Backbone:
């Protein structure tokens, strides 16, 4: 096997296929990147950690087709460090020779036959605008849980219907829902590991192709965007019924500059701790934020805004508010609150994104 | 900034229970409110200042209070609400300084010597506490500021209700002088009577009396103590409340238990007892430990750290059950079982969940209320109904 290509193209490709795939030092073959050079000038690079697999095809010059499994991290680091000149790669049964300008190296190969074959799902096909998909993933994925004790919540629910696609994530303290315009040839529902869909979102943001193609069946999902195909196993289990959590209508609504409020939450939140969240006092003038912790001090800030509803005090974990306000888009944020015990709802200027966040119950007698 | 000369605060809520009742029902404002046992043997627990004008005092039989103040509003105590207010009060104090020594639900000493950089001189701290307590709880309090705990407490008594009094170090003797000796710590009715026989009625009288005379009257130890106190000298530091390290319950069986259902039942019972104590003392636990003693007296322990601290019995039990399943031995037989909750943190604020459904938590809190009102064991998990009651 032999191919020649541009250093940058190869370096980027090797980096891309390694993100989203976790290092599994226990299984040697999984530390490798499978390179398949085909006649006609295509090099396909594949990595996998058995849960997620990434595959990327680039255009190269192929004098001699073939296959090689190369230690991925080492190859990527090496190619990245090469001088800006064409790279030549030539592999025999046991080692690969890498040449660039005056540099030459021989890398030991891994046994290619140990590399798992990556199957791609053939079920429901979905197509969406890449930029919109990237935005939607960015909005939703941050609400997924990091707690492995409840695997279902560590994923993002992808709900596909003929009307479009909905992405949902929750760590049980907040919930992010984003409706996405998409075309689909059927209905499907899947819980995708957060890191897989986030990686797909990143690829969609970078790719210059206008769409992301998704295919999913009972066990797997594949995202195709910008030349990268990311295949992931699905998380088994029942995702919570999020629809019944979404409140209908609203009683008390704050309409506020999204950036202004976000900045205020950040500033005031610096003095908040687990036991002392940020308190939001809503009144006709807007919202007053305050926080205090015994060992640090206290902070107060008033943000002028339009508020319709009764005077209320609700306390939140500032990080959850920050996540929601960042995820919402547009100049204005709408925040609906009910009382100190019911979820607050954050929305941006555009429809389609909803972020629920549960308050922190203050130990006070809320008299 | 240097440590101020008068760093000790004594903060005392005014007519606590009665004032809370007025916050609950503002129409009571300005009326004589008396909280206490309303039965024939009940005593007054708290009386508003309006009621005190009629001569009503704490610890007085309610029957007598009714005679003194027939138009008073007599209410039974509402401990749960008082506790909630007291916790919030404590929290406000804790936000000023960690050096808070609670004496009762409604009073505490603070050493603000280290908080002045952040909040200004002690009187400013005192004023800030008073305004926060009023704003957030709707209650007034009185604060004494002095160099020692003794004087700070006497100062807060002197400025009650709704007052703030600083006793500067160089004014201490002048402040104490005219106070009756009875007000000093360690002077009870009997001591006061003995002192009166010598014509010692005020603190100034006491301070003037030579120690040998006092010694003859009261004995050496008490004489010295009173002599020092009468000078306003009191070197007891403010001792912040230390939270317990863990809360646990264990049960030794009269005969070893080996029945799986019975073991499960005991663990459930222990889990609920531990949880009830966590709740009543205001903590949540981060670690759960199961202790099991075998008939051979070998004691096994197994622990688990939780992702979210809990004070819910069913959550403790879920972990305890898994820990029990992990104990070695096919046929399990135990002499003792224990459940311990560690890594305690103040319950304080609680992040609510969308999903987990805090239904168990709510349920168990409701059971707490039932038990407080009607007695232990009247509401419990159905599986525990078969369990013999604790002796």
Residues:
């Amino acid at each position: 096997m032999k191919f020649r290509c541009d250093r940058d193209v190869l370096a980027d490709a090797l980096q891309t296929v390694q993100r989203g795939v976790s290092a599994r030092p226990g299984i040697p073959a999984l530390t490798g990147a499978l390179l398949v050079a085909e006649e006609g000038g295509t090099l396909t690079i594949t990595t996998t950690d058995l849960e997620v697999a990434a595959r990327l095809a680039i255009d190269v010059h192929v004098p001699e087709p073939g296959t090689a499994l190369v230690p991925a991290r080492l190859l990527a680091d090496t190619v990245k460090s090469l001088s800006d000149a064409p790279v030549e790669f030539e592999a025999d049964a046991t080692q690969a020779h890498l040449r660039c300008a005056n540099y030459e190296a021989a890398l030991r190969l891994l046994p290619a036959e140990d590399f798992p074959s990556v199957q791609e799902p053939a079920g429901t096909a979905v197509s969406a605008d890449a930029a919109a998909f990237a935005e939607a993933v960015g909005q939703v994925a941050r609400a997924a849980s990091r707690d492995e004790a409840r695997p279902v919540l560590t994923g993002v629910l992808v709900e596909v219907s003929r009307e479009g696609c909905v992405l949902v994530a929750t760590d049980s303290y907040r919930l992010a829902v984003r409706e996405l315009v998409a075309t689909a040839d059927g209905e499907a529902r899947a819980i995708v590991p957060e890191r897989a869909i986030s990686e797909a979102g990143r690829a969609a943001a970078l790719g210059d192709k206008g769409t992301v193609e998704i295919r999913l069946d009972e066990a797997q999902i594949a995202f195709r965007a910008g030349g990268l195909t990311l295949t992931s196993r699905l998380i088994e289990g029942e995702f919570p019924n999020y629809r019944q959590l979404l409140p209908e209508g609203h009683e008390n609504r704050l309409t506020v500059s999204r950036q202004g409020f976000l900045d205020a939450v950040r500033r005031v939140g610096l003095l908040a701790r687990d036991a002392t969240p940020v308190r939001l006092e809503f009144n006709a003038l807007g919202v007053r934020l305050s926080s205090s912790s015994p060992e640090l001090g206290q902070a107060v800030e008033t943000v002028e805004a339009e508020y319709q509803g009764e005077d209320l005090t609700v306390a939140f974990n500032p990080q959850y508010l920050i996540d929601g306000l960042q995820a919402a888009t547009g100049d204005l944020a709408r925040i609906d609150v009910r009382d100190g015990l019911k979820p607050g709802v954050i929305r941006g200027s555009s429809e389609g994104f909803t972020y629920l966040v549960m308050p922190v119950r203050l130990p006070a007698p809320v008299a | 900034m240097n440590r101020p000369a008068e760093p000790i605060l004594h903060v005392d809520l005014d007519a606590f229970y009665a004032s809370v009742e007025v916050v609950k029902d503002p129409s009571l404002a300005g009326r004589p409110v008396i909280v206490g046992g309303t039965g024939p043997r009940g005593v007054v627990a708290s009386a508003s200042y309006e009621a005190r004008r009629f001569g009503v005092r704490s610890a007085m039989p309610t029957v007598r209070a009714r005679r003194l103040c027939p138009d008073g509003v007599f209410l039974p105590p509402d401990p749960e609400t008082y506790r909630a207010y007291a916790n919030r009060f404590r929290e406000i104090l804790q936000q000023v300084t960690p050096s808070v020594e609670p004496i009762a639900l409604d009073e505490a000493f603070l050493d603000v010597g280290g908080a002045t950089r952040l909040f200004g001189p002690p009187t400013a701290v005192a004023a800030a506490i008073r305004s926060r307590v009023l704003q957030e709880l709707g209650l007034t309090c009185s604060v004494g500021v002095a160099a020692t705990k003794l004087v700070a407490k006497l100062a807060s008594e002197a400025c009650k209700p709704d007052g703030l009094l600083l006793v500067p170090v160089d004014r201490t003797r002048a402040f104490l002088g005219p106070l009756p000796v009875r007000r000093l710590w360690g002077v009870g009715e009997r001591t006061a009577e003995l002192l009166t026989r010598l014509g010692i009625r005020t603190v100034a009288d006491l301070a003037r009396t030579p120690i040998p005379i006092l010694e003859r009257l009261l004995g050496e130890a008490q004489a010295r103590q009173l002599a020092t106190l009468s000078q306003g000298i009191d070197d007891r530091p403010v001792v912040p409340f230390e939270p317990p390290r863990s809360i646990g319950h264990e049960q030794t069986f009269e005969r070893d238990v080996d029945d799986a259902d019975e073991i499960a039942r005991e663990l459930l019972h222990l889990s609920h007892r531990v949880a009830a104590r966590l709740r009543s003392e205001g903590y949540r636990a981060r670690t759960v430990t199961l202790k099991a003693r075998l008939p051979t007296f070998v004691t096994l322990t197994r622990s688990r750290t939780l992702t979210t601290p809990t004070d819910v019995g069913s959550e403790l039990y879920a972990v305890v059950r898994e820990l029990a399943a992990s104990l070695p031995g096919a046929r399990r037989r135990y002499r003792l079982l224990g459940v311990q909750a560690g890594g305690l943190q103040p319950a304080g604020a609680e992040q609510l969940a969308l999903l987990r459904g805090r239904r168990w938590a709510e349920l168990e809190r409701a059971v707490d209320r039932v038990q407080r009102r009607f007695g232990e064991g009247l509401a419990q998990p159905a599986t525990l109904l078969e369990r013999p009651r604790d002796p």
Remarks:
- The longest strand of chain B covers residues 299-310.
- The radius of gyration of chain B is 26 Å.
